[in-house]
Amino acid sequence: MAVEQGGPEILSNLTGGTDGDPEETAEWIESLDELIRVQGTERAQFIMRSLLQRAGARSVGVPMVTTTDYVNTIPVDQEPDFPGDEEIERKFRAWMRWNAAVMVHRAQRPEIGVGGHISTYAGAATLYEVGFNHFFRGKDHAGGGDQVFFQGHASPGMYARAFLEGRLTEEDLDGFRQEKSKEGHALSSYPHPRLMPEFWEFPTVSMGIGPMNAIYQAQSNRYLHNRGIKDTSDQQVWAFLGDGEMDEPESRGLLQLAANERLDNLNFVINCNLQRLDGPVRGNGKIMQELEAFFRGAGWNVIKVVWGREWDELLEKDEDGSLVGIMNSTPDGDYQTYKAESGGFVREHFFGKTPQTKEMVADYSDDAVWKLKRGGHDYRKVFAAYKAATEFKGKPTVILAKTVKGYGLGPHFEGRNATHQMKKLTSEDLKAFRDHLRIPVSDEQIDDDLYNAPYYHPGADAPEIKYLLDRRKALGGFVPERRNKHTEITLPGDKAYEVAKRGSGKQMAATTMAFVRLLKDLMRDKEFGNRVVPIIPDEARTFGMDSFFPTAKIYNPNGQNYLSVDRDLVLAYKESVEGQILHAGINEAGSVAAFTAAGTAYATHGEPLIPVYVFYSMFGFQRTGDSYWAAADQMTRGFIIGATAGRTTLTGEGLQHADGHSPLLASTNPAVVTYDPAYGYEIGHIMRDGLKRMYGEGSEDRNLMYYITVYNEPILQPKEPEELDVEGVLKGIYLLSPAKIDGARAQLLASGVSVPWALEAQQILADDWGVSADVWSVTSWNELRRDGLAAEEDAFLNPSDDARVPFITQQLEGATGPIVAVTDYMKAVPDQVRQFLPNEFATLGADGFGFSDTRAAARRFFKIDSHSVVVRALEMLARRGEVDAGAPAEAIDKYKLLDVNAGTTGTTGGDS
Fold this sequence. Notes:
The structure is a single chain. By secondary structure, this protein is of the alpha/beta class. It is built from 35 helices and 20 strands. The strands form five sheets. The protein has a six-stranded parallel sheet with strand order 10-7-11-12-14-13, with helices on both faces. A five-stranded parallel sheet has the order 1-2-3-5-4, sandwiched between helices. Strands 16-18-17-19-20 form a five-stranded mixed sheet. Helix 24 (about 590-600) runs parallel beside helix 26 (about 620-635). The longest helix has about 35 residues, at about 20-55. The radius of gyration is 33 Å and the shape is elongated. Component of the pyruvate dehydrogenase (PDH) complex, that catalyzes the overall conversion of pyruvate to acetyl-CoA and CO(2).
């Protein structure tokens, strides 16, 4: 953005040019000055707002002011009294800053060298400590406690505080980033709930995901409240972010939700140290001004904390606006340079720009000039901003706090471009930092062993520690803290799953519809149904979920204040404050954030919710895979439904809608259990098992996300077989259709929409070639592979024991003949199990890009249709001498396998 060029020029831009009557203008300005002097800034603000409103009503064009001058938003006369003991808080804040830096430094000893970050917390300590001592409520607070998203690179500071609180020991601090070698006394690098499940609540270091998830956490709090599940009216969400982080599209891309839903329970605190990881955020511009304009435009309340209290006197003297003009026009690159130089340098290059400003500091020593702090390091300024944010109603608030990265760490660190990557302190650095913080550590203690500089703790009985603990007790306990205890829920009984077992009779139904019917019955369960949170981007009608609109209703905290165009229809679009459906719009990223908030409510709020996120399968793990990784870290529980799955079922849509690989992407996430069911009854057993593993009794691993692919291709859904191998369904493979005749043997393995193709191939092989083929429904290639790899690992580590046989090997024991595996995915999906089977193995898959055409033509093109299965089986049998050598070529000719127009596999229909 363009840099402002000083107060007078800004005024000129606002007023629109030449002043026709300077004398009258001066009178108006004098009146405003007198109003401020006599009645204060708050009254002046009210008058100015009233005049602007009146000007608008009278069609007097007033340009929108998206940025204010580069000064604090809260005037000095509106600052509240600081309620704490600033000197005591300064002391233990210094101890935390020292311990945080020493912890990272000690982890750099040559035999360890695990990395870490010093500078972020050094610059942000005040921002956190004001919160810890006066605002962040713990889980024992009467209001339920706050949720705090900590800036990932500042994690050493949270460990340093926990050390003073008595929650961590020196041995724990020495286990920083050594989670296996120091197991039992180890600290994760960043906020990782999965790695420290009683400490961290929210993973944030994958930048951009923290802001997004914080917004949807605030929404989820309101959702819980409005649906009557929990009173969250007194809970605040805090997100601590970096100004460089705000360049991530996820950081800014979802601000509108917070504004539209008036989430005044949400506070962003952006640590504006003006630096990215490698250099300035906006060297030629002003990131605080840019963010101010952006957040104002998005409908947020903006509070800037630019300057510390030492500047108040100078700004009071700035009668002609010279100082503010310099503040406005100085780019961030220069501000960064000033903090890497000296007081004399600042005097010459900043204050020396005009005679007036140079004179302002004529009586200041260079040291006094240097000690003119930035606002993010001033306790009182930060306290005033936080108090204003928590009291503001009707909008979310962003606090833009100006700081120095590496503050107090000395000239090698402070404000330097490389400071983010710097982890080691020299002896001189440590001593200078000690002196700056007034830490009672001697030179000898530092010189004795550079990498064993001591931590500092004054003892549990020290008045500063008692004060610190008293503040946390008054605010409801320690933060961060994660708790697992939650309200017990009653899982649905057999009746809820009857619809899945019945099949579709003579009616054709895709597995998407089978799933929707099951979900509807689960939501109807009186004791369980209100816990279900359907999450849908703007495709509910595609999935047949518009039938939920009139009954479950769409969640909107503002209700429905318009006359709906489809109000007379049975399936009318209905929004409600108490609505159950989260209809996120065209917004997969926001949907996963909502999924994460709902799927962790069991820990965050002690109230389990069951999120069921339904989306186009192509736009899941491919588009938002990083968010699913964070969801796994946060130990999210719920169901992820990849609808319109497969590369050839949605071919009218074309390349970017054709999912041929989502199971592979899902397989990279250890917390995701992936299924590709063919029939409704399989879905019923899978979802029932998922709920039991997440919230039933005796589960060993509850922190799972179930990814289930469903299709939009109508088929006849069979009813559940009487002797169904339920264990096979859940573990990944069962015998669906044994061979009907005697003859040369083959095994056909298929999943999802390809199972009917395998059944058709079974019949063709029997009728046309006398081949006896078994058909196996593979509900999960991924889980079969995990089981097989686990068996191999067990054998590897226990060579003297009998090796466990993988489940798929057990299931196919005695199944003779070659195996043909077919799916609507790329070959790598079924190839996951190849190594666990002794049989000759061939894979048919849809490798390459998708395209627009009929299902039959697409399947013939990829050679995954029924006749391709037949030909591949014949080729393998011919090589073994079990069918005539000329049979494969004959079959290719007979079925016109090379002609895409001759394909017949599949049905038409289904929404797309």
